[in-house]
Amino acid sequence: MGKIILNTALTSLRGRVDGWVYRRRAGQTLVAKLPDFSQVVASAGQLVLHERFLRALEYGKAVNGDPARREPYELAAQGTLSSPFSIAVGDAMGLPVVKEVDITAYAGHPGNVVKVDARDDFEVVGVKLTVRDATSGAVVEQGQAVKSGGFWVYTAQTEAPRDRDLEIEAEASDRPGNQRTLSEMWHG
Question: At 29, phi and psi to the nearest 5?
Fold first, then answer.
């Protein structure tokens, strides 16, 4: 993307002009060639991504109109050429990831802990843990994990049924409400 240094004859330039797009970011004017998509036929996957992007734009607009929701994105934009709006849209496009559900300290007793490594390009705001009977799907217990030392930690509240396989599922959520899950099997 090119940069423009404006003079006294031209103090501000924004928008589309002759196939070029001009933007202002952090007090600078940036220029880029306007893309031409007129001959492109979108695939089914591209259409799905397009819909996701439209939802992300809606999220960005909602954040822009709400000072409390906008504040974390303003902090992230400081010292960059990105706007709070573009960071919010990027956050809405990115999904959280549950990298690991560590059940090594879980023995099926109240007070046992499950550690979850959940990450996001911006911020994971919550992790819900659900313990289910692997055969019937019945929920044994569920609740919110607590952020502690770079991990999310869930402390078991219920005695797990003996001689049953359990599915322990962690569901991470980010600011825009995107969710991702990862499960581990525990053999009682």
Answer: -100, 125
Q: Kindly compute the dihedral angle of the four CA atoms of residues 9, 14, 16, 20, in this order, to the nearest 10 degrees.
A: 70
**188 residues of the chain, pLDDT tens digit each:** 556 666 666 666 777 888 888 887 777 778 888 888 889 899 999 999 999 999 999 999 999 999 999 999 999 999 998 999 999 999 999 999 999 999 999 999 999 999 999 999 999 999 999 999 999 999 999 999 999 989 999 999 999 998 899 999 999 999 999 999 999 999 97
Out of 50, 77, 93, pick the residue that ends a domain.
93
Residue 155 and residue 85 in one domain: no
**Measured between alpha carbons, how far apart are the two ends of the chain, in Å?**
58
Q: Is the residue at 69 inside a domain?
A: yes
Tell me the residue range of the domain where 75 lies: 42-93
Model confidence, pTM: 0.77
Q: Are both 108 and 177 inside the same structural domain?
A: yes
